[in-house]
Amino acid sequence: MKPENWGYTNPIVSPLYGKPPLVWKDMRIQLVVYETEIENIQKVVPAPLEVRTNRVITWVSEFELGTTQGAFKEMAIYVQVKYKDYEGDYEPFLYVNSPLPLTAGREIWGYQKKIADISLVHDQEAVIGKVVRLDHQILKTIVVPNYVASMEEVPWSKDGVFSLKYIPSAEEGGTPIRELVLTEGKFTASEGKFFSGRASVLYERSEIDPTYLLEPTRILGGFSGEGELYLPLGKVVHDYK
Q1: How far apart are CA 124 and CA 131, in angstroms?
Q2: What are the beta bridge partners of residue 225?
Q3: pTM across the whole model
Q4: 149: exposed, middle or buried (C-beta count within 10 Å: 0-12, 13-18, 19+)?
Q5: Higher pLDDT residue, 124 or 67?
Q6: Shortest CA distance to 149 belongs to which of 25, 26, 33, 24?
Q7: Do strands 86-96 and 161-167 pair parallel, antiparallel, or not at all (unpaired)?
């Protein structure tokens, strides 16, 4: 098979996933926005990114209807950074509960994905997100919706999400692929189905998955609801070569 006849990804005769952009409809989402110490964020951000604020955003979502990735749950923790004139968010911790989005996310964009047990449930007046890995509850978030909100209330950075594409070389002493990627994905909240209110965040200490490094000092608020996500290909803004 000549390269022009290969599938988009491995296996070349039966590709695992298709080419972006990816679209997910009717997804459920929960977000918490809080502040931490700048020093905490600096421990998890790779150069040449620079920490821009002390805000952190947690994300727990459930995808059911979408393109090429199947149904899965995801958790991300965003910190706010900059590189040259770009202002973006970076995910030092990112988990899914299915191998397909893990593989695609790491291979295409370099997202820092690992497998974990993830849940997003309603319990009485609250929406609760939980992430468990290696018997540690590395994230628990609670949001109690109080009013209908808009996505503009979430302090996303203006230029998108940074990711670090890092693939070790298959050859001893070879040069790994190391690229800083910026992707302008977009989440659109469903009208009348996105809410805000009180929130809490709890991390259990794990040295294998040290999410606790970003422990909160002040909770700013939480969000929960439904919407859709559009994820295109990104662009390489820095090559570590």
Answers
A1: 20
A2: 29, 194
A3: 0.95
A4: buried
A5: 124
A6: 33
A7: parallel
Number of alpha helices (DSSP H) and beta strands (DSSP E) in the chain: 2, 14
Query: What SS3 state is found at 232?
Result: coil
Picking from 217, 210, 158, 149, the residue whose alpha carbon sits closest to that of residue 182 is 158
Mean pLDDT, residues 56-69 taken together: 89
For residue range 106-152, list pLDDT tens digits in order: 999 999 999 999 999 999 999 999 999 999 999 999 999 999 999 99
Q: What integer is the mean pLDDT of 46-70?
A: 92
Which are the contacts of 127, defined by CB distance < 8 A and separation ≥ 6? 30, 120, 121, 142, 143, 144, 145, 224
Pairing mode, strands 86-96 and 113-115? parallel
Q: What angle do CA 116, 228, 111 make, to 5 degrees?
A: 40
Integer Cα distance of 72 and 28 in angstroms: 11
For 146, the token pair is 């109080």
